[in-house]
Every structure is written in structure tokens, then in C-alpha cells.
Amino acid sequence: MGYLTRRPIDVSELIAAVSAPERGGIATFVGLVRDHHGGRAVRALEYTAYEPMAESICAEIVGEAEARWPVRIGLRHRLGALGIGDTAVAIAAAAGHRDEAFGACRYAIEELKRRVPIWKRETFADGSEEWVDPSRTAAPSSEEREGMAPW
Amino acid sequence: MGYLTRRPIDVSELIAAVSAPERGGIATFVGLVRDHHGGRAVRALEYTAYEPMAESICAEIVGEAEARWPVRIGLRHRLGALGIGDTAVAIAAAAGHRDEAFGACRYAIEELKRRVPIWKRETFADGSEEWVDPSRTAAPSSEEREGMAPW
Amino acid sequence: MAAVPPAPFTIRVQLFARYAELLGADHLDVVTDGPLTVGEILSRVRAFPGGGTIGVGTLVAVNLRQAPLSAPVTRGDEVAILPPLAGG
Amino acid sequence: MAAVPPAPFTIRVQLFARYAELLGADHLDVVTDGPLTVGEILSRVRAFPGGGTIGVGTLVAVNLRQAPLSAPVTRGDEVAILPPLAGG
Fold it and tell me: What is the pLDDT of residues B6-19, one digit of tens each?
């Protein structure tokens, strides 16, 4: 079973795949393609991955979450060209209790972002393209902040 | 718009209703009908509500979450007869950042369980019926615990 | 001048789930000739057959909001006695 | 008896995303006559045209797992240099 997919992600299907009569509490996280990034209008984007490693690390993360909490985890990350509003990533954690479901879901998305080798190339409204580097854009510098409107 | 519904809940639809290009991170919680409760096999159940108050309190909770976090909340609770595995409740919180989405989603489900006047009548496998009282079944007494198998 | 005796009126108390079953009705009418507190209404309802099982910690809603035992209830208020909640 | 000179072999280094663009290739072959550390491989790749932009803190994977600069790399290992991750 692949964690990476080039087809649209169906969240309901992912929830159905992990839930069961004894796992009736399901926490999910869904990440959609945003229309802005770093203050610039995004028109489209493309995800690429180091696929064998990405699959392997996803399996590792799912295994870690299922070992730490009594949950079943479903995880999908989309690759290829995506449009604004498309689902880029979805994680579902099904458990007997919602504490466990939320904890495991949160763990999986944090670790995915931190460890899975996936990259994102954004095409901006002006036609320019850029590989996203979260380490540079996550926290704008003081100078950048000063240039921002206060509202 | 009603928070209570007698028709099946569609989680994908709920997610679509709250998400937007600037709210690309969506945390959801889905609660399904479980097949066991308090150690007994459940065959079916029925939800009833004090409907005008339940609608009003749901609106209040959604308003509180949307005031405390920059999120948009979708919430549905099913009423009537449900089968095992049916979706009883679904909450979706869409935000620009996942911290906010998770925080608001968790808040809404906790407050819903604590404050919304909804009741659940379970039919067990042996045909007996019972109104669920979480205050009696949530934390088994020490005596009950001692009767439980250790695994 | 002589005081006009107050006209009695009824306060409708809605019952749900287990309480409706125990009392065999989805509402009761409490007759009074003046405002009552939530606590007084609870006492009246407990005096009905089957009402003795309504616990002391029971939630009562007045006009769609939870109300303390001391809250006043008067003509036209919507009162409901709520068994332990079990939504979600 | 005279030492047999070691036979040179190549270690294939995969490049992705921005690094593949900067170096104009999705892989490079590093020729060596013995094991190298991850750090040594990074130095060799930085010497290629466009390689100077590969940061010091860059992640390197050996056989699908992140590896420290001191990790040894030898014949048959799968090496990849990973630009800052941006999944999710």
C-alpha cells in the first residue's frame, strides 16, 4: 500500500479504511493547497518526492504512532501537479478514545512535515516559480515584519 | 442551518463547507456508533435531543471557538435511529495553521459532550434497552475494576 | 384597598429521555400563583409518581440555558429537566 | 607480498528538487577507491558546478535513512542529498 499517490485523496475513504466498531473516534488532519505563500499569490504547485525513502519514512511514522497509541493510522500525500484547494495531505487516526486519536494524528502530521522527503514547487501569479523552503519562510525576519501592514 | 440532522453525515462535505484558500489546514473529529458499551454488545441506538436548546448551544460553542481561534467550524450531530458504524457526530475546524485547527476542533467536541442536551438509548444484543449515562459508565468503580481481566 | 389575589398560572416543564420514561410524560404542568425558583420546580416534579429518581445534581434549563437552583422562573418561561447528557 | 591496489568504484548520489535544478542533474557519480564518509561525499558534490549552494546543514540519506556527516558510505549504498523538506 502506497502512502504517496498521484490521484485525488478521498478523506471519507481514508476514515473508512481505519475505523472499526472498537475504534469509533477518528481524528483527521487535511492540508489543502493554499492560494498564498509568503505574501505572494500562488497559482499552482507541484509536489515531488524521493519516493522510496518517503514511503519508508511514512511507514516508520505510522508504525511509531501505532506503537505509542492504541490507534490505526491512515496517511496519504499527493504528488504531481495540484491546483488551489486540492488536498495535498490527509491523515486519519482511529482509536477507542478521542485523546488517543488526536494525539496520534497530531504526531503523524508533525513527523511527516519534519522527516518525509517531499518538495513543493510553487508557481506564482506572475509566472515565476520557486522551491518552497519552510526554514526560510516559516518565520519572517524582523525586517520583513516591519514592512508588513499592521492589520 | 441546523447542527442536528436526521440524515447521514458526510464528512467530506463538512470539510468543503468550512475550508477556503486561506484556511487550508482542517482538523476534524468523527465519532461513530460503537458495537460495545460498558462491556455489553450494542445492536442499535437512538439519539434524541432537546432540539431548540441543542441547536442554540451548538451555535454558542461554534461561536466561542471562532472567537478564540481564527477558524471556521462545521458541526453536525445525528439524531434518530443509527446502526453500528454510522457517523454520530462530526466536527471540522479549518484554519490557516494546524495548531489553531486542532485546538478549536478539540474544544468543540469537548464542549459538545459537556453541554449539548442530547441523549442516547442503546439496544443491547440481548434486546434490553438503556439510556446511556456517561457519569456512571465513564469511570468504572474500583470494585468493577477488580472484576476485570488484567489484559 | 384590599389586595387582589394573584391569578394562578402554569409553568410547563419538559422532560426528556430517561426522565420522560420514568414519569411517563414528555412534560408536566406545575401550577403556581407566583414565580418559583428552579429548586422549587424540581421539588414539585420529584413529588410526581416516578419523579423520586430525578437526582439532586440534575441539570435544569430555563429558556434554553442551564440555570442554577436559585434562578427564578415565571410565567412564559420554558423549563426543561435534563438527564445526564450523552451526545457525541 | 605486494599490496593489490584497490579497485575504484562509483557511489551514485541522487539529487532532488532545488539541488537537482542547481546542478542540472538528478544524480552524480562520485568515484572513489574506498569508503567515504557522508561529509566527504558532500564536499565532493559541492565541488561540482552549482554545488556550492548546497548548505552545510543539508540532510543526507544513506539507504533511505538520514545519516550524520560521520556515517560511512561504501560500494552499493544508496545516497541522496535532500534540500529542505516541504511536505504536508
Answer: 999 999 999 999 99
* Rounded-to-integer distance, Cα A107 and Cα A66, Å: 11
Of A19, A27, A105, Cβ closest to residue B32: A19
Please name the residue of chain B whose CA is at the shortest distance from the CA of residue C62.
B53
Best A23, A97, A98, A132 member to test B by mutation, with max B CBs in 10 Å, is: A98
Number of helices followed by number of strands (H, E) in chain B = 5, 9
Tens of pLDDT along B40-58?
999 999 999 999 999 999 9
pLDDT of residue D2: 64
Question: Considering only CB atoms, which chain B residues are within 8 Å of A10?
Answer: 12
Burial code (b: 16+ CB inside 10 Å, e: under 16) for A99-108 equals ebbbbbbbbb
Under an 8 A CB cutoff, do B120 and C64 touch? no
Does B114 contact chain A (CB < 8 Å)?
A: no
State the average pLDDT over residues A94-118: 97
User: Is the distance from CB of C16 to CB of C83 less than 8 angstroms?
Assistant: yes
Residue B138 has pLDDT above 70, yes or no: no
* pLDDT reading at C38 higher than 60: yes
Contact D87 A109 (CB under 8 A): no
Query: Beta strands A36-37 and A40-49: pairing type?
Result: antiparallel
Q: How high is the pLDDT of residue B140? A: 41
Q: Is B112 on the interface with A (CB under 8 A)?
A: no
**Separation of alpha carbons A135 and A142, rounded Å:** 15
Identify which of B81, B32, B85 has the alpha carbon closest to the alpha carbon of residue C88.
Answer: B32
* Nearest-by-Cβ selection for A48 from D16, D80, D88: D16
Inform me whether the C-beta atom of residue B124 falls under 8 Å from chain A C-beta atoms: no
Q: Return d(Cα B60, Cα C65) in angstroms, integer.
A: 11
| CB of C60 closer than 8 Å to CB of C67 | yes
Chains B and A touch (3+ CB pairs under 8 A): yes
Helix (H, G, I), strand (E, B) or coil at C2: coil
The pLDDT assigned to B116 comes to 98
Question: What's the CA gap between C26 and C38, in Å, rounded?
Answer: 18
The pTM of the whole model exceeds 0.95: no
Mean confidence (pLDDT) of chain B: 90
Q: What is the ipTM of this complex?
A: 0.89
Q: Name the minimum distance, in Å, from the CA of D74 to any CA of chain A.
A: 19
CA–CA min distance D20, chain A (Å):
11
